[in-house]
TrEMBL record:
It holds the Pfam family FAD_binding_2. This is FAD-binding protein. One of its GO terms (biological process) is steroid metabolic process. SUPFAM superfamilies: FAD/NAD(P)-binding domain, Succinate dehydrogenase/fumarate reductase flavoprotein, catalytic domain.
Amino acid sequence: MESNYDVIIAGASNSGGMAACAAAEKGAKVLLIDKMGDSKYLYRSSIAAVNSNAQKKAGIKIDKAKLINFLTLFAQSNVDQRLLWKWVNNSAETVNWLEDNILKPNGGHIMAQPDAGYETLINTAFPVENVIANADDTDWAHYGSWVINKAQELGVTLQYNTKLEDLITDDEGKVIGIVASDRQSGQKTKYYANKGVIICTGGYGGNKSLMAKWNPFGLKKNVYSDGPRDDGSGILAGLRVGAARDEEPAETIFDRGGVKVGTNAEDHYVVDYRGFGYFWLGSYPFLKVNLQGERFGNESEPYQFDINSAAKQPGYLEAVIWNEEIMNHLEQFHTLGCSRLNWPGIYDTEGAKAEVQRRLDDGTAQKADSIEKLAAKLQLPERNLVRSVERYNQLCQNKEDSDFGKEPYRMFPIEKGPYYGIILGGRLLATLDGLRINTNMQVIDKKGNAIPHLYAAGNASGGFFWGSYPDRVPGLACSRAQTFGRLAGKNAADN
């Protein structure tokens, strides 16, 4: 196999695939490697953008300044605002390229989502979502293989089961290649890049030791990590050649981590892609109580805020309480993004009920014909849970949450059985803090100087997020990855 290329990209998912196509379109000789045996399934089905062709066609208008100010506020300005503006000004080009060059030739297209109808300040939302849809808008178009095929058509050399181990630099500190290992044999090989190396290897949520070092609280509030491939290896390689890294964690967490009664959150961090304990209705603003059976806040909030709140309660967990009747009125809650009822959300009503049954079957969820019996099954103080349910029902009847201010349309009483409950913790999708980059996607050192010929994109890069992920700007993480991947590929090829 050839060992000399113009551009080498480590990681063949959202950022890496787009980087490979962009570099190859500029005539660069490209090597694209990935540590695992496949990456096609990782391409996300929802991509944020501002002023994409699909959004223009749908009449969707978004104020860029208002959106960037919101994202800056959301992160308490712990971001590089130049990167936010770089994204918003290039996001449409990325989505348009994807639609014209990948989706339409294969029968897919972009379907812009106009709905961002949240009412409260904490749920401020923007209609940035561009859904990857099939021809008749009935399902997602799974396009990962189309991106990979396009890259290969452009001449990209693709090598799976090949892991970035180290970067090679010359005497002046310029990155001139990589050391990669074969997943099966462990044999190491050197590959050289004339123009640049792009790190697109993802975050570190699948590496428990790095979580303990860089995000220790994340180990307590998350009971699952859905990214076993996220080992932090690309970030570590960058650090070894002098790169700077975000000093505070950023992450995207779903409030969908169902665990069995009695679970100790501090000892339960399961890294697996198979979705053990997945509970989609955890993102619905049902009644939620702590392990003392007490309601502790407004359940109508972003996914990760819910987990942040629960993590301030005893045991870092919460219990979700609902009944059979609520599941027949899910549309009333008007959730958006991937918690939206019906496609392009994950489930319809029957699908949600089927998942509840799966959690009952595996012993994660509990069912009872009285709140007292449900409390016993969930190991919650009976008296406290009964009081919490009674008080919640009273607030629902009053059509005003005078305790915590939840919107009236999201209040639904729990009056008749059967009753359900599940213990819930965080489900880590990805860490979002990574190597610091400038607006050219170049990795920088602690003095802000670019490390020559080294680039990063996606969750291996930093400076864009801080703390919690703004899920009311749906598809933002994917869009950052794909947009910055394209920019990194173009810039590396231009060296």
